[in-house]
Amino acid sequence: MPRKTLRSPERGAARTRLLEAARDVIRRKGYCATTVDDICREAEVTKGSFFHHFDSKEALGVAAADFWAETTSQFFEAAPYHTPDDPAERVLAYVAFRRSLIEGPIEGFTCLVGTMAQEVHAMSPDIRDACGASIFGHAATLEADFGAALAARGAGDLSAASLARHTQCVIQGAFVLTKAANDPALARESLDHLERYFRLIFDMPQREETPR
Question: Where is the chain membrane-spanning (predicted)?
Fold first, then answer.
């Protein structure tokens, strides 16, 4: 996922800097624990500038989810998992790519919209819906590869849309386990199991395990 980048007070428009700050601070602290002051401090802008761009913290939350959807869409569109000719191999390449991102601080690879959706789904329908649009929108980008892989491998009775959503269920759940145990290895483990599952339904050989 897009990593936090260094910035100076002169870099970028204030609104963009506020969105970047929200992305970073909320992934680090959670939405409810994050204050407007926290975001302004991270973005190096005044509170007056914040309220010039956003009516409230909730309005920023919605905008941050939309910003996340836009920037991660660009990130995944440029990712190398689109390269294989075989659609089943593209699915496995996607899983491997997601696994490769699980490194560094937990807030650097976990999902902003997943974090916010878990916290505010009942208290802020607007943020919840923006987070849902991001999560389900990304899942939808995988459906064509799933559909082609299922058709090519003789498993067309399964639902491509459902399998695409299942990948997000595993990934978001993996992030929750990682946070609960403070252990990124649990997220990598979950992606390994997801790969094994897809190899089974696509009737592909299992990858040889590297001795530990």
Answer: none
